[in-house]
Amino acid sequence: MRKLVVSISLLFVLILAACQTPSSDQIKITTTLFPYYDIIRSLATDEMDVSLILPPGTDPHDFDPSPSQLVRILESNLFIFNSESLESWVSRIEPDLAQRSVQVLEMASYIGLVESEDEHDDHDEHDDHDEHDDHDDHDEHDEHDDHDEHDDHDEHDDHDDHDHGIYDPHIWTDPINLIILVSTIRDAMIELAPESADEITANAQAYIDELQAIHVAYSNWMTTRSSEVMMHGGHNAFAYLAARYDITFVNAYAGFSTDAEPTPGALQDMIQTMNETQSTHLFSEKLIAQNVATTLASETGAVILYLYSKAILTSEELEEGLTLFDMFNHNLAQLKIGMGPRE
């Protein structure tokens, strides 16, 4: 029955999209996540209409677009998303995107992906997270094999895995990854608007220069911090940052979804580790459930410091023009408080 409902809904979307009359001659670029929206809006020219599909405050791990949002995507000239492991609903509309000649970029296909080593175990080895040391296992995207049942969106009802595949989708937490993705997006935009190549290229270079400055700031911090251990009470969203800057990422969660729950054993292990190392600070993320972080803090006396995972922001932050650069800078300030050096 659920497959029938999805099929009828998608048919309605396609009929609605076919009946739409384009409102302008602007080039329409649509993306699912804020990091790519921030890049696109910074590179775009006046002839481009840029849309963010994910509403403010919405968790991308559980998001399913509305019919009007699907219409917006199907009307686009260019559609940019992260990965089918994170946005499994994209597979439903791939044939229609192709039929309507929408250019599609899957950002994760351009980056070497971090693979989970625990495979949903009880995280006995969670205190070292050596999987962050290499990024070379992405070529075949094996995570797609685990999504045979995703066409009916049962994962939103069940979440047995709580990880959306064996590869970490949070590629945007590493500024070097973002430099690669800016170049990829730049080239796609130039293909759509070759007459604006100089402007798009200049905008992209300015954005890359900002990311390189952020990388330098984080690299400098790496050489002066008093600890390399990041005690984290949120979900697994910072593996790429940890790998880039030699951070030992300690976390009780299995998988990569925000609705995962650590096992009691993993939670107790982390409490013991924090007490043994006399950890005074614990990191978590804005706009996610804080039950795990608050439990860890109450058991250890640690102060919680909040980071941006960069995929979720409030409507006020979006309206005020918060950028990825603001998020990186905020996070670095918090990391300095929690891991030193004190300023």
Architecture overview:
- The chain is an alpha/beta fold.
- Helix 2 packs across helix 6.
- The N terminus is likely disordered.
- The protein has twelve helices and eight strands.
- The longest helix has 28 residues.
- The N and C termini lie far apart (59 Å).
Top keywords for this entry?
43% helix, 343 residues, four-stranded parallel sheet, disordered N terminus
In short:
The chain is 43% helix and 10% strand.
Q: Give the N-to-C terminal Cα separation.
A: 59 Å
- Largest beta-sheet details: 4 strands, parallel
Spatial order of the strands in the main sheet?
2-1-3-4
Residues in β-strands, percent: 5-15%
Task: Give the SSE string.
Answer: HEHEHEHEHHHEHEHEHEHH
Low-confidence stretches: 1-9, 119-163
Write the layout of secondary structure elements.
Layout: H1 2-19, E1 27-31, H2 34-43, E2 48-52, H3 67-74, E3 78-81, H4 90-99, E4 103-106, H5 155-158, H6 175-192, H7 197-224, E5 229-232, H8 239-244, E6 248-251, H9 264-276, E7 281-285, H10 291-300, E8 303-307, H11 315-319, H12 324-339
Parallel strand pairs: 1-2, 1-3, 3-4, 5-6, 7-8
Helix pairs in contact: 1-3, 2-6, 6-7, 7-12, 9-10
